[in-house]
């Protein structure tokens, strides 16, 4: 049985979807025991509202929690009994195997950094994200690519980018079953000489290393296309790119909605298209995907989206279990020392 | 009469659309005299194919030109009689008022740098681009925002970013008639402390300057939304963002096309939607927009898209004329010394 420490506070929708997701998982045939970390009374009250197997859910009390708008480091200093710190400590002490949170991303990274060690060869950790692509990936034809870093490490050295490439490849191989994931550096041109100094040097390092299926540089065009399985960039660029994809998706939805309101003819057209649009929406719906890892610590960490519903939490818990079952941390260690 | 030096070689579609655009402009009631720079025989032959006013078009010979795939600096060294160098020299010597090219972007920047001076306060020049937005901009409700830099200067200091902000604001005010353009820095968060070191420092500089309508930082989400009139970023980020927007647009078109092929029902839906889709396509069609400036030189430079058709060239020539009529360079000087 895998023990998952779930920070059950501070998500956009409060504790309810988190408890509900954990309750649903407890009734499934998945070898996961969930430890809900947060306000004891609130969590027990929420558990009463959802059918669950009480042999597979525990509650560990934490008297406080980090809000989405809080400054991460200062808040952790000020609130030592907050849920994310308690959840991370539980994993560090061996009381759980994997950390999951849908709360303040910066606080998750800081809390992990206080309780866990960084792996050898890792100076800075990377926050991963999946993004929708036209090209499918791997044997399951997953319509998503992996991108890292998307905001944990804003500015990177070449060595840090190379470590991200190795960790991203390792994760993609283990979790998406892609035998030799195509890894690429995001740059302003395909030639090895294109990019910032760090990107140019990282290109040379990865080319010389020879241990990855390194596809060289890709351009902005290739991100939605899905040319690579793993896209590597510094956090500043990754954050902008990822949020822009969200923005484009919102813009397309708004345009469709306005057209819809404007004319009956459009409404008819949209109705006829709707099953197709539904499929596209399904493909790009982050709620299906439980979350993405923070890579570089000696314990597995899964960050779920702040707006996760119960289904997303269920998927995050399944993903968390996979990282333990497949020995992600040991595999990361190997990939970094190659 | 404004004299426009049009580098008539090296665009994706060859000289034909360039000559055709110039021919069409010569018959219009626009005070532009076009100097076509390139292979004399080829350009005269092309002119014969398009009705034009020969009093308003000249040809200046250049025996060679830069290809799209050429390395800019080395090629300019090797081919001193190439069309972009000759066109830039013509402007520098007073033989023309503005430089326009649809050729190799790097070669345009390098040729301009060899013939022109940088303005006081400009260490590095900026390539601008327009990008489609949901929110309209300015009194003409232009569905485009301005972004700079998108590839001329990959890595920037804070001072360079601040100069880009001033120049972008000035250009937007003069050309789009926006009285006090909203200028923003693209970053990974809205707070003044978010971003790379250069972005954080540029934020402080612009806030302290007080001469612009500085809206602070915007995030990736705000790019397609169009929150700001002028988006400022370093060239590495701008290039990736811009190409990603192209990639998303291609992806959406492909998805629509596949849906179209797949089912009669989709086809019917698309047909009903087509007038709406056509409007969206029109709004986001770069061919309508002639080009975007390279800002920072003491002469105006317009870069048209490599794939420009005759209509885009006509618009680029009109835009070039506006930069001269409205005294862009003098206004840039004023905005930089404030």
Short recap of the structure:
Chain A has helices at 16-26, 40-48, 72-78, 83-92, 105-115, 158-176, 197-209, 222-225, 235-262, 264-283, 310-325, 328-337, and strands at residues 2-7, 32-38, 57-61, 98-101, 126-137, 142-148, 182-186, 213-218, 230-232, 292-295, 301-303. Chain A has 338 residues and is α/β, with parallel strands linked by helices. Chain A folds into two domains: 2-122 and 296-337, Isopropylmalate Dehydrogenase (3-Layer(aba) Sandwich); 127-244, Isopropylmalate Dehydrogenase (3-Layer(aba) Sandwich), CATH 3.40.718.
Most extensive chain-chain interface? A-B, 50 and 50 residues
What is the arithmetic mean of pLDDT of chain A?
A: 90
- Overall helicity of chain A: 40-55%
Structural class of chain A: alpha/beta
Distance, first to last CA of chain A: 31 Å
Number of helices of chain A: 12
Strand content of chain A: 15-25%
Shape of chain A: globular
Oligomer: homodimer
- Using only C-alpha atoms, the radius of gyration of chain A works out to 20 Å
Order of helices and strands of chain A: EHEHEHHEHEEHEHEHEHHEEHH
**Order of strands across the widest beta sheet of chain A?**
3-2-1-4-11-10-5-6-9-7-8
The CATH architecture name of the largest domain in chain A reads: 3-Layer(aba) Sandwich
The biggest beta sheet of chain A, please?
11 strands, mixed
Number of strands of chain A: 11
CATH class of the largest domain in chain A: Alpha Beta
Q: How many structural units, i.e. domains of chain A? A: 2
Low-pLDDT segments, ≥5 res of chain A: none
CATH topology of the largest domain in chain A: Isopropylmalate Dehydrogenase
């Amino acid at each position: 049985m895998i023990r998952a420490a779930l920070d059950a506070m501070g998500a956009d929708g409060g504790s309810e979807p988190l408890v509900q997701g954990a309750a649903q998982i407890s009734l499934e045939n998945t070898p996961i025991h969930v430890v809900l970390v947060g306000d004891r009374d609130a969590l027990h009250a929420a558990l009463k509202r959802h059918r669950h197997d009480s042999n597979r859910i525990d509650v560990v009390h934490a008297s406080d929690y980090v809000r989405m708008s809080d400054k991460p480091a200062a808040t952790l200093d000020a609130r030592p009994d907050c849920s994310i710190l308690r959840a991370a400590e539980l994993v560090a002490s061996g009381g759980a195997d994997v950390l999951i949170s849908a709360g303040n991303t910066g606080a998750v990274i800081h809390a992990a950094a206080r309780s866990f060690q960084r792996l050898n060869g890792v100076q800075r950790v990377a926050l991963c994200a999946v993004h929708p692509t036209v090209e499918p990936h791997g044997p399951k034809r997953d319509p998503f690519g992996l991108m890292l870093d998307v905001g944990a490490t804003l500015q990177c050295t070449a060595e840090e980018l190379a470590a991200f490439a190795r960790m991203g490849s390792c994760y993609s191989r283990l979790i998406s079953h892609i035998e030799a994931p195509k890894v690429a550096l995001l740059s302003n041109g395909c030639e090895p000489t294109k990019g910032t100094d760090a990107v140019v040097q990282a290109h040379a390092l990865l080319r010389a290393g020879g241990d990855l299926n390194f596809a060289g540089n890709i351009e902005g065009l290739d991100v939605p296309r899905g040319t690579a399985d793993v896209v590597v960039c510094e956090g500043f660029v990754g954050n902008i790119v990822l949020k822009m994809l969200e923005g484009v998706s919102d813009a397309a939805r708004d345009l469709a909605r306005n057209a819809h309101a404007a004319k009956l003819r459009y409404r008819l057209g949209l109705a006829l298209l709707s099953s197709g649009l539904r499929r596209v929406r399904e493909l790009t719906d982050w709620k299906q995907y439980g979350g993405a890892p923070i890579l570089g610590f000696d314990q597995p960490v899964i960050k779920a989206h702040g707006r996760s519903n119960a289904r997303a939490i269920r998927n995050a818990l399944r993903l968390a279990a996979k990282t333990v079952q497949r020995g992600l941390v040991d595999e990361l260690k190997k990939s970094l020392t190659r």
